[in-house]
């Protein structure tokens, strides 16, 4: 790999390495297990190819980073979003091209040479923009940057937290399954030749998202609803989505639509108090009275997305948060302002809510949303 990689002769070699590592990180968030050895193989492959050619970059990553047919669609979506372009289409000679690229991608890292191509798109610049965009505050983005961020949101696949269940499944380890052991012994003439074992089968834990759509949260409401849509699409049977403001609105059905833009449009029609006031305590009480006490919040991971500006009484908010904490398995509070330097939770609403919060996280950028997905998974 030379310093001419990606057409930037005056930049050090590590720029190309950083781009590939950033792309691998994006793939892992999209659900592709881009392991370190596969990333090393892609770096070696790129060193033998023309890094200015998007087709060469595309196939070098596809042949080295994908481990199963299920990874191909996710890889295409990640490539298009990360490099801000469409993935190259397969041609008639794709099989021959795959064979040629596979032969030229040894696992041992070695330097190669590439010639500049002025007509090729600057993939490194597009990748750098995507990396910077991940950490930008969504309230400060332009219209074009928001459009690009929407493509990156498609790669967010939150994993559901798991809980043990009474049902068990056969396994090499675990407790002895006497019924299966005796049943197999009967087939062997009554002699026990091996102990059959079983262990609890984990089940997805319910995730409940309460998204504040009041006026103070309007710069972040769209992004937070896209996070909720990603969670609802990943686990539709175990995810509930509500919006909070001056009233409680259930938008779970709208969030299950496949297209995120259609889901948000349908939710917008269903939400009567968009950009209105905030009465978090009253709305939480309504949620717990109607939904939480009946089982929606019981044993679930409840995620409250709000800046904590409470127009009602903070005493009521504190009481309802304590009540929620007793019902839920874990309570996560997402505050967009927490990602800003020097932020302190000084508002009355946050002061009342924090004693009942298990995880207090930021929610201002795509990188923060990716961290939130990890917090929910491990809650």
From TrEMBL:
Spans annotated as Disordered: 90-127
Pfam family, any one: VWA_CoxE
Entries under PANTHER family matching the protein: BLL5662 PROTEIN, BLL5662 PROTEIN-RELATED
Name listed for the protein in its UniProt record: VWA domain-containing protein
Organism: Klenkia terrae
């Amino acid at each position: 790999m030379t310093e001419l990689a990606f057409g930037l002769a005056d930049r050090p070699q590590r720029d190309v390495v950083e781009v590939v590592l950033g792309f691998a990180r994006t793939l892992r968030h999209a659900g592709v297990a881009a392991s370190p050895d596969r990333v090393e193989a892609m770096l070696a492959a790129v060193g033998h190819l023309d890094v200015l050619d998007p087709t060469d970059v595309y196939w070098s990553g596809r042949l080295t980073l994908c481990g199963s047919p299920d990874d191909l669609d996710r890889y295409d979506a990640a490539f298009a979003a990360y490099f801000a372009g469409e993935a190259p289409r397969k041609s008639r000679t794709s099989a021959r091209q795959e064979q040629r690229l596979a032969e030229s991608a040894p696992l041992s890292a070695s330097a190669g040479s590439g010639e500049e191509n002025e007509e090729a798109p600057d993939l490194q610049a597009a990748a750098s923009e995507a990396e910077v965009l991940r950490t930008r505050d969504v309230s400060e983005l332009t219209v074009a940057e928001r459009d690009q961020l929407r493509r990156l949101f498609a790669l967010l696949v939150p994993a559901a937290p798991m809980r043990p269940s009474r049902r068990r499944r056969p396994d090499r380890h675990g407790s002895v399954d006497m019924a299966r052991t005796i049943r197999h012994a009967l087939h062997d003439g009554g002699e026990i030749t091996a102990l059959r074992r079983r262990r609890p089968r984990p089940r997805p834990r319910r995730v409940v998202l309460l998204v504040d759509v009041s006026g103070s949260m309007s710069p972040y409401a769209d992004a937070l609803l896209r996070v909720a849509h990603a969670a609802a699409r990943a686990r539709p049977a175990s995810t509930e989505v509500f919006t909070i403001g001056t009233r409680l609105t259930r938008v779970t059905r709208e969030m299950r639509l496949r297209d995120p833009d259609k889901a948000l449009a349908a939710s917008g029609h269903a939400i009567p108090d968009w950009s209105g006031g905030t009465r978090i305590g009253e709305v939480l009480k309504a949620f717990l009275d109607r939904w939480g006490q009946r089982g929606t919040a019981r044993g679930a991971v409840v995620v409250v997305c709000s800046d904590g500006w409470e127009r009602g009484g903070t005493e009521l908010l504190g009481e309802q948060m304590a009540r929620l904490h007793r019902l839920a398995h874990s309570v996560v509070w997402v505050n967009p302002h927490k990602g800003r330097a020097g932020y302190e939770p000084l508002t009355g609403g946050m002061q009342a809510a924090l004693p009942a919060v298990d995880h207090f996280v930021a929610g201002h950028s795509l990188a923060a949303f990716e961290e939130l997905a990890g917090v929910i998974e491990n809650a």
